[in-house]
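Sat 14:20. Reprocessing the chain from the morning session after the first attempt stalled halfway. Input below, unchanged.
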Amino acid sequence: MSSWSPEGKQSPGSWEPHLCRILFLLLLFVVSAKGVTPDPNACLVFHSSNGSSISCQPPAKFPHYLPADTIYLATEFFNLTQMPADILQGIPNLQELHLSNNQLEDLSAKFLLPVPQLKVLDLTRNALKRLPPGLFKVSAALHTLVLKENRLDILDASWLRGLKALRHLDLSGNQLRTLPRKLLANFTDLHILDLGNNQLQTLPPDLLRGPLKLEWLHLEGNRLQVLEEGFLAPQPKLRYLFLNNNKLTTLAAGAFRGLQVLDMLDLSNNSLTSVPEGLWASLGKAAGNMKVGFDISGNPWICDQKLDDLYRWLVANEDKMFFQNNTHCAGPKALEGQTLLAVAAS
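Finished this time. Tokens:
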């Protein structure tokens, strides 16, 4: 199931920022089919009854004029360090803004003031280290914010103030070492949270007490060592949980308690040698949990009697286990190299 790796992961919210891109590709296909060759030095423009959609990439020139009815704007791969101050003036109906693959170092606090209807903001692969307080002052409609692969090493809750409809927050691929308390306290409609591939060693105990509708939680690729009791409990609707590629050595016995509909759990490539009895009690029940599966491979499991509880759970949920032949015992010596399933069946 390599599709669940951090590199290949997909989440339902990841489709939304790309729907218009798909429409542009379809448009290009139609135009090409009619024997018309698009001008590579011009932005691609698509007019519809809803408004104009514009996509610009080099060698096209950066747009200095935008139709007043613009609802979608993508200006990507221009290596801009600053956005023109007035680029969004005169397009108050803008709903999607894609600025990925530039070199933006900062944004003005007034940057989004002209576009109060903005719903999607994609800033993937820029050079942002900070966000100005007040950036989202009029962004009550914004539901998708992607800050993936920037240079954020700290995060201030005040930077996100004004976001009232946020459903998808992607902070993956930055340099975050810590998170502030009450970061998500006001995001009661958050469905997708991606904190993967940062440098987080611990998490605030109240991190998940704000959003009550979380379905996807990405924490992979950090430096987490412990999953505390009750940390996940405020999120009974959580369906996909990625904890792979951390440094986890300890899982509290009640770490998964309260997760009523978990479909996917990835604990692969950590430092787990054992797990406490009762950890799995709430997972894999007949109620329908683990519909997708689980992965516990890549851990140095010590296959002794302390794993008896895990053995019973593996036998009962064998059909949901990824990489069965790659989930081995690291000890004791007599069982080294054997698969956990083989030991469990014996």
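Confidence is low (pLDDT under 50) at residues 1-9, 30-36.
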